[in-house]
Specification:
This protein is mainly beta. The protein is built from 1 helix and 13 strands; from the N terminus they run ββββββαβββββββ. It has a domain of about 130 residues: Pnp Oxidase, Chain A. It is globular, with a radius of gyration of 20 Å.
Length: about 190
């Protein structure tokens, strides 16, 4: 099988705590999900040539952007505390993020549908999973006559299986259940 896809239009992102990797929450209003892996290398040079190359550990970073700031999802990503108080007209949802917060490790997943009807017509899209990520405290971008969006930086490392990123090209599109898609962190058999 020649896996591949021409992805277009980020369709979905979701998050789960690493400690509960099967309990996902939808990150509503997915706009951007941009993970990048960097790996430094050092070359030993001698005799006018490159003799050996040593590679450092892979490191992941990036950013994500979404439209709807929901306290429960942002608390899960940042380690903050979400609460609701009051009644009627005084009802308020609140997210508190401490200044000394250390974001918890989370699993992030992005789904991008395939639009190719030619070369890669046998793939429904691309599912990108970061099995051990940390999300920075989000920032809000707003202004006059513009939508408010939420952005956050990402850092991610290898999980206990040694995976820093999992990229899948499923044959059929995932089925959404309660706003999330199934995610498998173990290799298929």
């Amino acid at each position: 099988m020649a896996a591949g896809s021409v992805g277009y239009n980020l369709n979905h992102t979701q998050v789960a705590a690493v400690s509960a990797p099967t309990v996902f929450s939808d990150i509503p209003g997915a706009i951007g999900f941009d993970p990048t892996i960097d790996q430094n290398s050092d070359k030993l040079r001698g005799d006018g040539a490159s003799l050996e190359t040593a590679y450092g550990a892979a490191e992941g970073s990036g950013s994500m952007e979404w439209a709807y700031a929901t306290p429960a999802v942002m608390a899960l990503m940042t380690g903050g505390t979400a609460a609701t108080s009051g009644t009627g007209g005084t009802l308020i949802d609140r997210l508190e993020i401490k200044g000394n917060t250390n974001p918890p490790a989370v699993v992030l997943v992005g789904w991008i549908p395939n639009i190719s009807s030619k070369t890669y017509a046998d793939s429904a899209g691309i599912r990108v999973t970061l099995p051990n990520a940390k999300v920075s405290v989000p920032s809000f971008a707003t202004g006059q006559e513009t939508f408010t969006t939420v952005t956050a930086d990402l850092n991610f490392d290898s999980d206990s299986n040694g995976n820093i990123m999992i990229i899948e090209w499923p044959k059929t599109a995932p089925t959404f259940t309660s706003g999330v898609i199934p995610t498998n962190l173990t290799p298929p058999v």
